[in-house]
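User: For this week's homework, look closely at the record that follows, marking any run of repeated tokens, and judge whether sequence predicts the tokens.
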Amino acid sequence: MFDTHCHLNFAAFNYNLDEVIQNAKAAGVTRILIPGTDYETSKKATEIAEKNEGVYSAVGIHPHHVMEFNVKRETYNVKEEIKKVETLLQSKKAVAIGEVGIDRHYYRKTKYLDYQVNEEFIELQKTFFIEQIKLAGIYKKTLIIHNREAKKDLLELLTVSYQLLTTIPVVFHCCEPDQDLLDFAIQNNIFIGVDGDITYNEKKQEFVKKIPLKLLVLETDSPFLKPQGMKFPNEPKNLSIISQYIANLLNKDPEEIKKITTENAEKLFVQHQE
């Protein structure tokens, strides 16, 4: 299996990273993709990937962390910040740009003081997103899209970028259970990432039944979105729980779901680089 989205670069795994990777392999998860959320976590993701077989990285600035630049607009340059991310693409293990996108969710727990989601902030998110879409196009890297409560903004922006989307693989990470998002994904051959919340979110349980199997990939989003009943932190080894749950929902052979989703993930992140 292939965990297409897990944050082994986060503090939750500072002390047992090797064990977590070994546990994943023992559970049949032989490939892992670690996305960055800012320059430092992107750098760490790539360093982990370079040291571990079957592990890959994505580099990028998450829309939530665009807030860092929103509060110091006079002292930074967008293109210079993107250039820093670009330097990490020298690694052969850096196979994607992500996770990047638009986020209107109001985070109650955040390191940013006076956190506000206003239109000025959203416009800056869009600027960073567009520059990182361009980066994916230049380097022919897979694009990992984060969207939270910002469907209208996202689809309007992606519609304008339609031509570029046809040249690179794209995945909607932890896709919201929304028909408009699914329709756009099907029309543009965009993959849909499904996580551990499938085990308790009824809307997502119904949503996954509509996803064409050829576009379905699995992810844990570790250390978050743990399957129901599991303890924090979530780990890549729990991908088998997600796979089994989806197989039950779809009344499919569990081995078929594992095979199809792994092949899809290989197309998305590995074969595209070869």
